[in-house]
Amino acid sequence: TDPFSTEVKPRILLMGLRRSGKSSIQKVVFHKMSPNETLFLESTNKICREDVSNSSFVNFQIWDFPGQIDFFDPTFDYEMIFRGTGALIFVIDSQDDYMEALSRLHLTVTSAYKVNPDINFEVFIHKVDGLSDDHKIETQRDIHQRANDNLADAGLEKIHLSIYLTSIYDHSIFEAFSKVVQKLIPQLPTLENLLNIFISNSGIEKAFLFDVVSKIYIATDSTPVDMQTYELCCDMIDVVIDISCIYGLEGAGTPYDKESLAIIRLNNTTVLYLKEVTKFLALVCFVREESFERKGLVDYNFHCFRKAIQEVFDVRVKVLRSRKHLNQI
Ligand code: GDP
Question: Any transmembrane segments, and where (predicted)?
Fold first, then answer.
């Protein structure tokens, strides 16, 4: 059985005004489009764009708000959708006047909360590449304040909004997405624990568990995340997939499979090590050259780690299946 059937995937909705950057985010994060190409993305008039991200650990959908769409439209079953959603990301264009976006955010959040108070509300203040550092902080403060004031006026101050500054022109969009996804993974503490044990027993500096398609890291060990390390790991995934697409055996299917393994030696005595863990996930680590001399140990520990990860996800599927079964009785 596939331990990542859709029922256990974190479900994410991406919403926001038209032109706020939703399609660009989707293309850059999930389809490897380069940020400059998004300039030529065509605007669509569809309200809902389903992304069949079968190849990713994350299940995700985009919603637009072109003018007239409202929550009182009976043909639009938003209740059902909110009920199955883990996180609602609302994208606000920081380079534009954001008053309209703020009122849409308020309407969306309050409607969703009524249906499903467990949704995580995540606000992406987007396109911040166009703002100076001071302006970024000021915009974030202003948006946060206004959004919270609106909630307080409605007597809903208990709703928590998480705010992120994002841009598709750097890694901030991947970092923000990683945090959003991590909150939806109930096994996160176990995964972190396994990563901690793995790195300390293998002399590894840093390890990430990556969703290969999106380059979102779904867990890392408890040492602090340094942006440069994270970016290097992202680049490594790109290199591995690209090489495998170009030189992989024809007809071999996907560029990522059980055999996927790569080692890159950097000239500063560090080794990057990538290995397949599950159909969607890969481990990417930073290892000092001297620790990597004991590669047998790293390989052996990895083998144990991989088995443990697979069990973690497997158990959850079994529990869900039996719950579903109970519901049917
Ligand atoms: P959507 O209607 O919400 O799906 O918006 P699009 O994805 O079509 O984006 C609208 C425009 O915003 C496009 O021209 C993108 O190139 C641009 N855009 C998206 N993300 C960013 C960003 O992070 N920074 C900048 N400067 N422009 C962006």
Answer: none
Taking the centre of ligand 1 as the mean of its atom positions, its distance from the CA of residue 69, in whole angstroms, is 21
Cβ of 33 below 6 Å from ligand 1: no
Handedness of CA 135, 138, 140, 143 (dihedral sign): negative
| Cα R_g (the chain), whole angstroms | 21
**Over the stretch 32-51, which tens digit does the pLDDT of each residue have?**
788 888 888 776 655 555 55
Q: Is 41 in the pocket of ligand 1 (CB under 6 A)?
A: yes
Q: What is the ipTM score, two decimals? A: 0.98
Name the residue with higher pLDDT: 119 or 18: 119
Query: Residue 189 class from Cβ within 10 Å (0-12 exposed, 13-18 middle, 19+ buried)?
Result: exposed
Dihedral of alpha carbons 27, 33, 39, 44, sign: negative
139 lines ligand 1 (CB under 6 A): no
CA of 279 to the centre of ligand 1 (A): 31
Cα 39 to averaged position of ligand 1 atoms, centre (Å): 7
What is the position in ligand 1's atom list of the atom closest to the CA of 38?
Answer: 16
> Which atom of ligand 1 approaches the CA of 41 most closely?
8
Ligand 1 pocket, residue 182 CB under 6 Å: no
Higher pLDDT pick, 252 / 113: 113
